[in-house]
Specification:
By secondary structure, the protein is mainly alpha-helical. It contains 17 helices and 9 strands. The radius of gyration is 24 Å and the shape is globular. About 50% of the residues are buried.
């Protein structure tokens, strides 16, 4: 007897009964408490599906139901319970994310488990919130939450690819270590193991050989021979271009900021679809070959991550508009490093981040665009580029540290507009303005877009100030006057 099939049928029957009951009860009552109870019943039913997956390693349904939420979200929102509304909305987004995680075979097991843990946590919070609002006995929703607690299955289910990656999961996949609040485990060698490397060797590349630890010896330094491994040479070249850009264009020693050496790790993990700066190394995966291609091929992405060395010294808070400014600045520098390496003017540059990395075997689209945020990719699996370019489209969300990767398109687009207006080489005119604004003393730790815009106006020369104001106004941001309180919500 196929126990799994029987359990799937039972769960499906429960879901159907709940949906039927929801329709009947909605015709009778529409109070906030009733609405909360109906949504709770649907979340509880969907939680049974998640619990089954965590216990059995098999996903029993192709999709999750949102009928009760669709019918009652307006009622909940109308009662001004905004925290509840947002919490429940995140709960449903988490359900979609779990469904994707369960069926997407290109995710490595460690990444899948980290993402699963995050999203089950969001589902738990939604259950508690809606249970309280619906006056569900605490013991009842605690029992549901407890049912969701078992560890993820050791065996990844073999299932057909799902359709679209939920937007709520996309930012987590692209920048996993910030989304989940922790970085993938990385085994670092003992300090004495690196004594063999000369202290004055500033750039070092290590080969993880598809494991999650760093060997004791680098495979490439500036005083050693080139490597036959393309990934090693690609990231070494990107590191070299970035360090040279900082020194020659901005007059800053990024190596000194990093403590005397910049270290990179390539071939991290198996099919690892990400790249990040962990505070000591830039860690690059080879991509999963399905959603994302290799990261080392794109100098602008490596420069973006290395710019987090500088951002660590800026003293800014990584959330909301401040976090968006940080992500935007890293994209700006990444694009400028690419333009610098190619000798391009602002008009000649493509202003794309990692062109060809998304859906590498088919569409070959970029990850982001400073020229036209929101248009970088449109893919069956990944959905559409969620970035926005103007304040009118600003996304208020609790996901992704307040939407730092989505809303970063606004200041990025302002920089693009300024660069093409000033003309010539962007790193010679627009770039220094942005750099001085970030590294000066005028920017508070929780600066919003308007505050940063005001500082860029102050840092611009007489001939450039109007162009800076106009660039910001074009994206819907009015620069704050020095000493003026911020007016844009963070």
């Amino acid at each position: 007897m196929d126990v799994g099939a029987v359990a799937i049928a039972v769960i499906g029957a429960i879901g159907g009964a709940v949906a039927t009951g929801v329709g009947a009860m909605m015709r009778a009552r529409t109070s906030r408490r009733t609405a909360a109870r109906l949504v709770y019943a649907e979340l509880e039913s969907n939680s049974a599906t998640v619990a089954f997956y965590r216990s059995m390693g098999v996903w029993p349904a192709a999709s999750t139901s949102r009928k009760a939420w669709d019918a009652n979200s307006e009622v909940i929102a109308r009662t001004r319970e905004t925290d509840l509304f947002q919490m429940v909305s995140r709960g449903y987004a988490a359900l979609e994310a779990v469904a994707y995680i369960a069926q997407e075979r290109s995710l490595s097991k460690p990444d899948a488990e980290e993402l699963l843990s995050l999203n089950v946590g969001l589902l738990n919070e939604a259950l508690r919130s809606v249970g309280t609002a619906g006056t569900i006995p605490a013991a009842q929703w605690e029992k549901v939450v407890e049912r969701l607690s078992p560890a993820a299955p050791a065996k990844r289910p073999a299932a057909p690819p799902l359709g679209n990656v939920p937007v709520s999961l996309l930012s987590q996949m692209v920048d996993l270590q910030r989304a989940v609040g922790q970085r993938p485990a990385l085994e670092i060698p003992a300090a004495e193991s690196e004594v063999r490397v000369q202290k004055d060797v500033a750039l070092r590349v290590y080969d993880a050989r598809n494991l999650r630890k760093i060997p004791t010896r680098p495979v490439r330094t500036e005083d050693g021979p080139p490597s036959a491994d393309p990934a090693v040479e690609e990231i070494f070249a990107a590191m070299s271009h970035t360090v040279r850009f900082y020194r020659e264009a901005l007059g800053r020693d990024l190596v000194e900021d990093a403590g005397g050496a910049i270290k990179a790790v390539v071939h991290f993990g198996k099919n690892y679809a990400n790249v990040y700066w962990d505070g000591r190394h830039i860690v690059a995966g080879d991509g999963d070959g399905v959603n994302f291609g290799p990261f080392t091929q794109h100098v602008e992405i490596i420069a973006h991550e290395l710019t987090h060395i500088l951002l660590e010294h800026a003293g800014l808070h990584y959330s909301g508009q401040t976090g968006s400014l940080m992500e935007s600045f890293a994209d700006v520098i990444g694009s400028l490093v690419k333009q610098y390496a190619l000798g391009q003017s602002a008009d000649e540059a493509d202003w794309l981040m990692a062109n060809g990395i998304v859906d590498p075997h088919e569409s070959r689209m970029p990850l982001r665009s400073l020229k036209a945020p929101g248009t970088a990719f449109d893919d069956e699996r990944l959905g559409r580029d969620p970035q926005v370019a103007r304040m009118a489209d600003y996304v208020r969300t609790e996901d992704d540290n307040g939407g730092v990767h989505i809303n970063s398109g606004i200041p990025s687009h302002a920089f693009y507009l300024l660069s093409v207006t000033l003309g010539g080489r962007a790193w010679e005119r627009a770039g220094p303005i942005w750099y001085r604004a970030l590294t000066g003393d005028a920017l508070p730790p929780s600066a919003d877009f308007a505050t940063f815009a005001g500082v860029t106006v102050d840092e611009a020369g007489v001939d450039e100030a109007d162009a800076v104001r106009n660039a910001w106004k074009a994206v819907g941001v009015t620069p704050s006057v020095t000493g003026e309180a911020p007016t844009t919500p963070g």
